[in-house]
Every structure is written in structure tokens, then in C-alpha cells.
Amino acid sequence: MARPKIALIGAGQIGGTLAHLAAIKELGDVVLFDIAEGVPQGKALDIAESGPSEGFDARLKGTNDYADIAGADVCIVTAGVPRKPGMSRDDLLGINLKVMKAVGEGIRDNAPDAFVICITNPLDAMVWALREYSGLPHEKVVGMAGVLDSARFRHFLSLEFDVSMKDVTAFVLGGHGDTMVPLVRYSTVGGVPLPDLVDMGWTTKEKLDAIVQRTRDGGAEIVGLLKTGSAYYAPATSAIEMAEAYLKDQKRLLPCAAWVNGAYGLKGMYVGVPTIIGADGIERIVDIRLDKAEQEMFDNSVAAVRGLVEACQGIDPTLA
Ligand code: APR
């Protein structure tokens, strides 16, 4: 059987890390696409030359031609401009919307059967626009946010409790941004929910609130430190986890920005929810029950995402 083909649209910091991870994990052959000439070719060659030492056989190719992504099984999109210090995700809207048009059309014309994972920010609006421009089925176009947000939450919780990150599970809902909703009562250490751990004296409500806030600000914290770009190791790893779930039909329960039409009382929009990812793409939206406070936070997040989508429609009326 031929190896799966993974097309990475955008060969910047995240794109290069994605290519490296996909090769090391032997998820398939990798095509790195970018408009910058030489960058995808150089990164593909550099990573390919790590093959003998690392011991992988994946082929890597860099290109500036969409024809080379033909027949891709997975496309991961990072094309665009990353956030700079002081810039909100929403500032990026206008610039990256134009990029999504070019990328969506490139995927539509060359890899219409692919499972498409969007990483470009502002995420919830960009994944929606990418789906609109590409015309692919909604269940095959998804945004990477929740896996990263919950990974950050899990990391901070593991430090607080001094336990393995593997034993911490965390649930994050809503938009990828300041309004994201970390669900404390659905987050656990070895199955013990966080509120119980407060009762057991493992932490305090105040410390937990601070961790929730740090999770919400997780992207900005890295931007502030790096000064010349945004996070890329953890975002790339999160998208690879989603790609692997699709390619291996793992039926993983992963939070991501998915098309929600009916669940959560929503009528057709992209927002972060728990999903099942398998060979059919988004196979199920997991419609968990929210209490009043959680519902309010989720509604707030949904409203923020709607505002971004409306702003996109204002910029490009063909999206209306
Ligand atoms: N088509 C293809 N590639 C493009 C296009 C386009 N129309 N426009 C820009 N690019 C490429 C750039 O040439 C660059 O190589 O996208 C790449 C983006 O890479 P970086 O600037 O290094 O950004 P990165 O850190 O990888 O983040 C990419 O993910 O998390 C988000 O906010 C982040 O939106 C940003 C995206």
C-alpha cells in the first residue's frame, strides 16, 4: 500500500516542525508548500538528511507549486502571518483571510479528498473561511486549538500537582482565544475531578483560577517571551496528534474547532467542542452537558467567534 501523503501548506516555524514530526513518526510522505521560494525546498532537504540518523524512510519534498499536493490524504494549513507582540489574534484577520482564499482554492483544485487541519489564526474564523473557500465537506475541515489549549492546561496542572502529564486529562471548550472555556469539573488527575482535588487539599480554588487564566493566556505568554513569533513546537505536536487520529482511524476524543450544527443548540458554526476523529474525519460531536456558569462562558465564546466571522464577511462579501 502506498504511504499516506501529508501536505503542509506553510513552511514556516510550525510547518517545518510539522514536517519533522511527521517524518520521525513515519506518518507518510511529506510535501511542504510555501509561497517563499527556497524555504520549503531547504527545510524538506534538511529534514530528509536527518533520515539516516533518525531511521525513517518518509520522503520529503519542498515546493511552490500547488500541483505537488495532488492527492494528499491530510493537509495541515499554517500559511499566513503569525501574531507579533502586542498584536491580538483578531488583528490578523484581514491579512490571513486573503491567504485562506488562496489556500482553500489550492486544496479544492488539488486535494479535495484530504482531511484538512487549519492552524492559522484567528483560528475559529480562519477554519470557517478555509472551508467556505475550499468547498470541502464540513466533517473534513477542522481547526487545531483545543488539543493545544488542553495540553497547556494539562502541563500547568501537572506542575501544580507534581504528577505525570500523562495522568492529567483536561477539557477545553469554545473559541481559541481569550474567551476559551477550560472545564474544571471535566478535568481530572487519574479520573479525580479538579474540584475534588481542591476538597482534598491538593490545591486551592485561587491557584486553580490562576492556572485557568494562564491557560487562556498561553499563546500570549509564548509570544511575549519569543518576541519575534508565536509558539510552534506544541501547536505542531497537537496537529500531528489529530492527523494521526485520522490516518490511523483511532477514533480519538479530541477537542477541536469543528462544524457544529445542532449540538450545543448551535446552528452551523465552527467552534471548539469535543469531537471523535477517525477515518471519516469528524465522526461525532460530543455534546456534553454544561452547568449555568459554563454555558454562560461558552455563549460568550460563541459570540466572540460569531463576531470574527461577521468581520470576515464584511471584508469579503462573497463569504456572506
Ligand atoms: N500561501 C502559502 N504560504 C504562505 C502564504 C500563502 N498565501 N502566505 C504566507 N505564507 C507562509 C509564509 O511564507 C511563512 O513561511 O506561511 C508561513 C508562516 O510561517 P511563520 O511566519 O513562521 O508562522 P508560524 O509560526 O508557522 O505560524 C503560522 O499558525 O499559530 C498560527 O498564529 C499563527 O497564523 C499563524 C500560523
From TrEMBL:
Q: Which parts of the sequence belong to the Lactate/malate dehydrogenase N-terminal domain? A: 5-143
Tell me which domain of life the UniProt entry assigns to the organism this sequence originates from: Bacteria
The GO terms this record gives for MF are: L-lactate dehydrogenase (NAD+) activity; L-malate dehydrogenase (NAD+) activity
**InterPro entries for the chain:** L-lactate/malate_DH (IPR001557), Lactate/malate_DH_C (IPR022383), Lactate/malate_DH_N (IPR001236), Lactate_DH/Glyco_Ohase_4_C (IPR015955), Malate_DH_type3 (IPR011275), NAD(P)-bd_dom_sf (IPR036291)
Q: Give the enzyme's EC designation.
A: 1.1.1.37
Catalysis performed (reactions): (S)-malate + NAD(+) = oxaloacetate + NADH + H(+)
Q: Record's NCBIfam families?
A: MalateDH_bact (TIGR01763), PRK06223.1 (NF004863)
Name the record gives this protein: Malate dehydrogenase
